[in-house]
Amino acid sequence: MVLMIKVFLLSASAAYVFYDTWLALISAVFLMYPCYRYTHEKKLRKRKEALLRQFRTGLDFLMTAVSAGSSVEAAFWETYENLKNIYGNKEMIVEEFALICKGLKMNRPVEGLVRDLARRCGIREIKSFSDVFSISKRTGGNLSKIMGETGQIISERIMCREEMLSMIEGKRMEAVIMKIMPAAVILYFRVTSDYMNVFYGNAAGITAMTLVLLIYGLCVMWIDRIIGGIG
Asked: What would the mean pLDDT of 155-179 be, rounded to a whole number?
C-alpha cells in the first residue's frame, strides 16, 4: 500500500510538471503500472541481495553443526534457532528456514525442501547450492565441505560487489543529480519565465512533452540499471 502511494505521488508529480495541469492526474493512472513494476523490481533486487547475505550466515551455522556431528536435519533446526536469535522472526531467511523445519516435521526429504527454498528465492548461488546438496545427500558426499565452499563463493561475490560499490560511491550522488536535473530544469523555467508555455495546452506541445517524459524515464531506468546491476 505504501509503495502504491509513493508510485502515485511520483506519477502525479511527473504528470503535473510535464503537462502543467492537475487534469494530468488522469494520466498518472496510466503511469502507475510501469512505475510500480519498475519500483517493485528494484525493491526485489535489494531483497534478494539481503537474503543472499543472510543465507551466507545460515551456511556458517549449518557447516558448524554438521562438522560437530549433528545430522543434516538436526543442523537445520539448530540453524533456524540461531538465525531467529540474530534476525528475529520476520526476516526472510528465518521464514525460509521455518518452512524447511516445518517440512522436516512432516518427514519430507531435506533435499526437496532445500530445492523449494532455491525455487522461491530465485538466486543463482542458492540454486547451485541446492543442486550440489541434493546430489551429495543422495551419494553420501562431504556436506560440510560443500557448505564451506558454497559459503566461500557467496562471500567472494559479496566482497566483489562491495569493492565495486565503494569504487563508484562518488558517482552515486552524480547519478541522483542526473536523474533529478531534467525535471528540475523544466520546473525552474516554468516558475521563472514563460519559455515553457508553448509546450502546454496544445497537441504539439503535449506530444513533445510526452516524448521527453518517455526518454527521461528510460534514462532514469538506465542509470539505475548501471548502478544497481553491479555485482
From this structure: 74
- Residue 97, amino acid: F
Q: Measured between alpha carbons, how far is 211 from 214 in angstroms, rounded to an integer?
A: 5
Residues 6+ apart with CB under 8 A from 204: none
Q: 45, 60, 75: which is closest to 152 by C-alpha?
A: 60
60 Cα distance to chain centroid: 23
Q: What is the dihedral angle through the alpha carbons of 197, 200, 203, 209, rounded to the nearest 10 degrees?
A: 100
Q: What is the pTM of this model?
A: 0.65
Question: Roughly what angle, to the nearest 10 degrees, separates helices 25-67 and 143-167?
Answer: 140
Longest dimension (CA), the chain: 78
Count H helices and E strands in the chain, helices first: 9, 0
Domain positions in the chain are 47-165, 169-231
pLDDT band with cut points at 50, 70 and 90 for residue 48: confident
Cell of 185: 530544469
pLDDT digits (tens, 9 = 90+) for 54-101: 888 888 898 888 888 888 889 999 999 999 999 988 889 999 999 999
HSE-up of 79 (CA within 13 Å, CB side)? 31
